[in-house]
Amino acid sequence: MTRTLPDLVIEPVVRMALAEDLGRCGDVTAQACIPEDARMKAQFRARQDGVMAGGAGVRIACLLMDPKARVDVRVSDGADIAKGDVLVEVEGSARGLLAAERTALNILGRMCGIATQTRAYVQAVAGTHARIADTRKTTPGLRALEKHAVACGGGINHRFGLDDAILIKDNHVAVCGGVGKAVRAAKAFAPHLMKVEVEVDGLDQLDEAIAEQPDVIMLDNFNLTDMATAVARVKASGVKLVLEASGGVNLDTVAGIAATGVDVISVGALTHSVIQLDIGLDAV
Predict the structure, then answer these.
(1) Active site residues
(2) Domain ranges of the chain
(3) Res. 3: pLDDT tops 70
(4) Under CATH, to which class is 123-272 assigned?
(5) pLDDT band at residue 4, thresholds of 50, 70 and 90?
(6) CB atoms within 10 A of CB 90
(7) CB 54 within 8 A of CB 145
């Protein structure tokens, strides 16, 4: 899981965001109003409770605009934060830090929002053995950061991209000619470290999938009764595999899904419907 991201991964994203914001002439407001040699000290403060994620993005944004700035990330990614907490304190060129402000806040607020939302899902299934996973429904260009934020919130990462695991979905099955045929082809193709998962959209496909012994079976948009039946069938078969539930998952439904006994619940809303955590930058 992407619990720790190297700066090498984060910096290109931050550079792109800064370039988008600075445009052709840079921060003309700061140039017009702030003396070139002015300095400032400021704090990124949480304006609501949540979970920390994205501190490295703030540090990189500030240092790119002022390499001599002092950046003190006070809260580690994954830690709980409360309204009023100082998350990061910065000191340096006023022009540089003001130019970095919006990019830093965008990254920090979004990553904290994802981590906070993930934590809510994880807490909702507490007491079951189900784990909360993300999906590939991420913001283009931000996948590594967003999956890191999910891990900070206590979730687990699904496959990162199309190249690191085989996931046979309904369209693959349709073109290939059936669940069993698709799984057999995938297992013959996969190297020993690559897992094979197949999606089934009803109990009529489940037994065929179990017989081929994939690593994971995804139950796509199953109702709770059928989901519990699927769990029982897998246990009765004696086949060791992971059952993943997907589709129709939200904070109102996730506890009931977990109670059926599935192993993993994948939730696209962790990243595609996130509400940014309210964080502000205040000069001190």
Answers:
(1) 102, 137, 169, 199, 220
(2) 7-115+275-283, 123-272
(3) no
(4) alpha beta
(5) confident
(6) 26
(7) yes
